[in-house]
Amino acid sequence: MKKAILILGFLCITMSYAQDQKQVSTINVSGEGKIKVAPDQALISISLETKGNKAEEVKKENDSKMDALLKFIKKSNIAKEDFQTQRVSLNPNYDYIKKKSNYLATQSVQILLKDLSKYDALMEGLVDEGINRIDNVELKSSKMVQLQTEARKLAVKEAKNKAEDFVSVLGQKVGKAILISDNSQAYNPQTRMLAMKAMAMVAGEAPKETLAIGEIEITINVSVSFVLE
User: Fold this and answer.
1) Residues 6+ apart with CB under 8 A from 19
2) Which of 31-45, 115-129, 145-159, 200-214 has the lowest mean pLDDT?
3) Is 97 helix (H, G, I), strand (E, B) or coil?
4) CA 178 vs CA 25, 28, 33, 83: distances in Å
5) Over the range 68-90, which residues count as b (16 or more CB within 10 Å of their CB) and which as e?
6) Average pLDDT value for the chain
7) Of the candidates 20, 55, 106, 111, which lies 20 to 30 Å from 70 by C-alpha distance?
8) DSSP code of residue 205
């Protein structure tokens, strides 16, 4: 009998707790934090390709050119931790126009340039050393982590302001946040003119534009659920 009373009491308490939980009113809002900043770094991805009829000769020639290329990068005062080989390949290649088979050796290097004023000299030197492909030029900020933190705070602040706007006409107040979701997506901006200028160098054309740094945008999107009081 006592056991039945205890079980009944426990069920009553559980039901009462569940009812209390259901009575909590919430408001769900989104917020966006956006910061614009002039980039101070460039992440440059380049490749050196060599073609030939014999695999051994193609690899040897490509290695020799890459040796000269890496020495040039070091002479350009790029720290050893700021450049790295990304890919090395040697593959048979079929020329459909000439209807002949040959071999293609490719080595790719990624360089983090921390001084954008050296961009022109570096790119011209890389072309002179034999690179024949520029895969990507990505503008970056050395303060990215700090800027993302600031953008998150702005996003949450905007969400709270939205919630307060909604409930201000209802005679209610915004209480504590019970759920925060980060809806941001990774985005790596690229300045189109910078990439076009780099490709013009590879093609042997004189660059017609100076480096336009512009701005990169750091955007954070959040969803927040607040309790209504």
Assistant:
1) none
2) 200-214
3) coil
4) 11, 10, 20, 44
5) ebbebbeeeebeeeebeeeeeeb
6) 84
7) 55
8) P
pLDDT at 193: 44
Q: What's the token pair of residue 107? A: 């080595």
Question: By the 8 A CB rule, do 69 and 110 touch?
Answer: no
* Average pLDDT estimate for 124-128: 93
Residue type, 199: M
Rounded to 10°, the helix 119-128/192-202 angle is 30
- Could you tell me the two tokens for 191? 């300045």
Question: How many Å apart are CA 154 and CA 32, to the nearest integer?
Answer: 7
Backbone angles phi, psi at 192, to 5 degrees: -60, -40
Contact between residue 159 and residue 31 where contact means Cβ atoms under 8 Å apart = yes
Structure tokens at 198: 């780099």
**Strand bridging mode 174-182 / 83-95:** unpaired
Compute the distance between CA of residue 92 and CA of residue 104 in angstroms, rounded to an integer. 6
Strands (DSSP E) along the chain, which ranges? 26-37, 41-52, 83-95, 100-113, 133-140, 174-182, 216-228
Euclidean distance between CA atoms 207 and 198, whole angstroms? 8
Tokens of 202: 């590879």
Residues 6+ apart with CB under 8 A from 54: 103
**Contact (Cβ atoms closer than 8 angstroms) between residue 33 and residue 151:** yes
Tokens of 194: 């910078």
Helix, strand or coil for residue 96? coil
Both tokens of residue 29? Answer: 């809002």
- pTM greater than the 0.85 cutoff: no
